[in-house]
Fold each of these.
Amino acid sequence: MKLMSHLVERSRMLDDIACADDFGDMPDLEKRILAILSLFETNRKSGNADEYVFPDSRRIRPTLVGIKSFLREGAAIDIEKMRASTEQLLRRKLVAKKSDCYFLSDSGKRVGKIFRIERMSKGYDNLLSRTGNSKAYSLFCEHVFGKDLSQFNVLDMEQLDTLIEKLELKPSEVALDLGCGNGRIAEYISDLTGAKMVGLDFAAEVIKNAQQQTVDKKDRLTYVPGDMNELSFKEGSFDAIISIDTLYFVESIDATIRRLKKLLKPPNGRLAIFYDQTCDPDESRDILLPENTKVGVALSSNGLAYETVDYTTNSKDIWIREIKAAEELKELFVKEDNADIYEDRVQDAKRTLEKIEDGRHVRYFYLAKLKK
C-alpha cells in the first residue's frame, strides 16, 4: 500500500481510539513526543530494565531527558514544558508512566507510529533534497564512493559493480529497489543493464522528483511511494529485489524477507542485500558471522539459499575516506548552510570505525536465490 494512502487509512482509525480529541489539532510537541516514543519501540531493550539500545550503540531510557535528547532543539526546550506535554498525553491515555519512564499505550502505539512515519518522511524528503542540490555533497560522493549517485549509505563503486555482476539482470527483467531514495542508483543499474527498475521509498516528495527527472526513461524506470512494511505488489512481480542498507528500518527483517520471497518470480528470482551488523561489547562475536546476522538468520528461516561477500575491510576504507572528504569540504558545506550534514557524516564515520576497530561491526553482501 502506498504510504500516503496508508496514513489516510490509519488516520481514520483515530476516531475509535480511547479519547475523542481531534488528534490533528494536537500540539506539535505532543506529536513529536509520541513519534519519539514510537522510535524507542523500534529498537531492542538492553539487559537493563527500561533501557533501549539504538543503532549507534547509545543506551537511552524513555525519561523526559531521554525523550528530549531526540529533539533537534532539545537543549532549548524547558523540561517543565516537556513534563506538561507528557501529562497531557497521560490524560489522553496515549502514554503510561512507570517510575520516571514513559511508554505508549496500545492506542498510543497506533497514533505514535503514524506521527513517526510522517516525520521520518518529511525529514528524509528534506535531507535528500538538500544533498541532491548540494555541490559539497556531490563532490563528497565522488571522493568517497567513486561516483556521485547521491549515496546516503556505504555503497561505493566496487560494491555496486559486485551487485550488478552477481544479479546478471537482463533487459527483459524487472527489479525492485527497496528504499531507493532519490532513485539515482536504480537509474544507474537500469542504464547499464537495460532492465526495468521499480524504485520504492516512503519519502513522497523525493519519489515525485525522481519521476520528473527520469521522465525520458519512463519505459524502464518507475518510482512509487510506499512503506517497506506493507508491500502491496502482486506475488511473482520481480525477477530481482535489491535492498541497499534499508532493512534496518523495517519492523521485522524476518517478516519482510518472507514477503520479499513471495514477490520474487520463480524459478530464478534473486534477492540482493547489503547489510551491516554490530554487536554490543557484552555480546558474543558469533552474531557477526554471516549466517548469524539478522539477515542471515532470516534468509535461512525462509528457505532461501545464499552466498555472501564480506565488505567489512572495504567499508572501513570508505568510512576513513568519508572523514577525509568531509573535512576537506567542510567550508563548502558550511557556506551552503549544510554544516549538519558534514557533522552527521563525520560523527557516524567515527562511531562506526571505532566499532570496526574493536571487532564489533561487519558489512556483508548477500545474494539469495529461490530454490529450484
Note: The longest helix spans residues 106-132.
Amino acid sequence: MGQKMWGYCYALAVLTSIALAAPLPAADDTAGESSSSGQTRASMQAAAERRIEAALDSPLKAPLEFIATPLNQVTQVLSEDYDLPIVIDVAALDAVASSPEVEVNSSIGNVTLRSALDLMLRNTGEGDLTYIIDKEVLMITTQEEAEKRLQILVYRVDDLIDSDRFATTAERDAGVDQLNEVIVATVEHESWMENGTGEGEIQFFTPGMMVISQTRRVHDQVEDLLQRLRTAKAEVDADAAGRQATAATQPVTRSIAISDQAVADCEKTRNMIRQALEKSVNWQRELPEGDSSEVFLYVLPNRVLVRHVPDMVRQVERVVHEITPTPGGSGCGINEPSQGKSPDHPTPASADSKATAAAPDLADAPAASEDDN
C-alpha cells in the first residue's frame, strides 16, 4: 500500500512538472494573431472592392436596354452579367417613397458600366438614386443616404507633389498645399469641412500619400482630377525635355574672365592656355545640328571667348578655372589642368593679334561671364 501510494505521488509530481514546463500562450502572440486577422480582413475587403471597381470601369458587354423593368430585375441581370454582388438598400428607398420594384427605362451603350449605371439610376424614379460600394457589395441607395456614408481612401500623389528628388522640404510642403487647394476648390466645393460647409477631409501623409474621407461621388471626381493632372504634367514634362534637348544642340557664346594680370602681360601664358584647352577639350566633336563654322575659341588678354554647344562650353570653362597662371616675365606659364583629352584636329581660331582685333570690345571689357544664344 505504501509503495502504491508513493507511486501515485510520483506520477502526480511528474504530471505537475510537465504542466508547469509547458509554455503558456504569450499575450504578444495573441495580439499578433488578432493583428494578422485584422490585416487579412482588410486585405480581403480591399480586394473585393477592387474587383467591383474594375467591373465598373469595364466597357458594357451589351447595351442596357430596359423598358418598364423593375429595378430588382435589372440588378439581377447586371449581377449575373458582370459577376457583381448587388443589393438594394430597401430602407433608404422606402424613406423616399420608392421601392425595389420601381420601373427602369434605359437605352445606353458604348460606355463603361460605371457611366451606364449612373445614367440609368439618375433617370429612374424621382432621379434620387445612386450606388455606393459598401461591405464588399455594390449597393443601390438614395443620394441622401450616400451623402451620409463617407469612405476613406488613400491616394499616391508623390509624382504630383514631389517630382523633383532634389526638392527641399519647403518646396515639397508648397506642393502639398497647392494640391490640397486645387482639390477643395474645384471638386464639390460645398462638401469639404475646410470650406466650412461639408464633412469631407484631406490629410497628407509622408511619403507622398493623400488620405481623403469623402462620399463615393466625390472620390470619383478626385480620381478623375488626379488623372487629368497627371496627363497634363506628362505633356508639360515632355515639352520641357524637348526644349532641353534642343537647347543642348544649339551653340552658345560665353566670355570666361581671366583676372590674373600674368595673362595680360605674357603672350606665352596665353599660348599655353590655348594649348591646354586643345589637349583637354574634344573641340572637334561634331555638332548635332548646325554648321561647325559657327564655333570659335579665342584666348584674349583678359578672357577666353568661346562659342560651342553648352556641354563643350562647360568643358572649356572647367579647364580655364583649373589653370593657374604663374607670374609674368621670362618665367611666365601655367599649371596644367587635372585631366585632358586630345582632339583629332586643332581648334578653329588662334590667339593672335587678328583674334584680338576681331573682338576689341571684349578684350577691354570688365571681367564677367554670360551666355548669348
Note: The mean pLDDT is 77.
